[in-house]
Amino acid sequence: MKVNKKAVLQEEKGEAILFDPETLLTFWLNESGILIWKLLSIGESPDSILAQMKNKYEVEEEDLRSDLRAFISALTEQGFISGD
User: Fold this and answer.
1) Domains delineated in the chain
2) Residues 67, 57: contact at Cβ < 8 Å?
3) Which DSSP state fits 75?
4) Most buried of 21, 25, 36, 68, CB within 10 angstroms?
5) Is the Cβ–Cβ distance between 18 and 29 less than 8 Å?
6) CA 70 to CA 63: how far, in whole Å?
């Protein structure tokens, strides 16, 4: 999985926006979304991200897995990451 290297992350007060200057698309991130983006940016796999988030948040693993899958799918649809 690769992140779009042209995407810009702008963080402020626990929230962030991803912006693609090429397509002008934006994507809002909360605290957990920021963590996922940063981990994807350094090449972490979804399984590794799941394990790290499981340690950080008190959430059922299946709920976390489902939310992570949906988040990655949304980022992919918007062109912020690719499955390459």
Assistant:
1) 2-82 (1.10.10)
2) no
3) H
4) 36
5) yes
6) 11
| pLDDT of residue 77 exceeding 80 | yes
- Say what the pTM is: 0.91
Asked if pLDDT for residue 84 goes beyond 70, the answer is no
Return all residues near 38 (Cβ < 8 A) that are at least 6 apart.
9
* Average pLDDT rounded to a whole number, residues 9-31: 95
Two tokens at 48? Answer: 């590794």
Q: How many angstroms separate the CA atoms of 29 and 11, rounded?
A: 9
Give the span between the Cα atoms of 64 and 55, in whole angstroms. 11
Determine the Cα–Cα distance for residues 82 and 75; give it in Å rounded to an integer: 8
Q: Copy the structure tokens of residue 67.
A: 């939310």
Both tokens assigned to 61: 């693993």
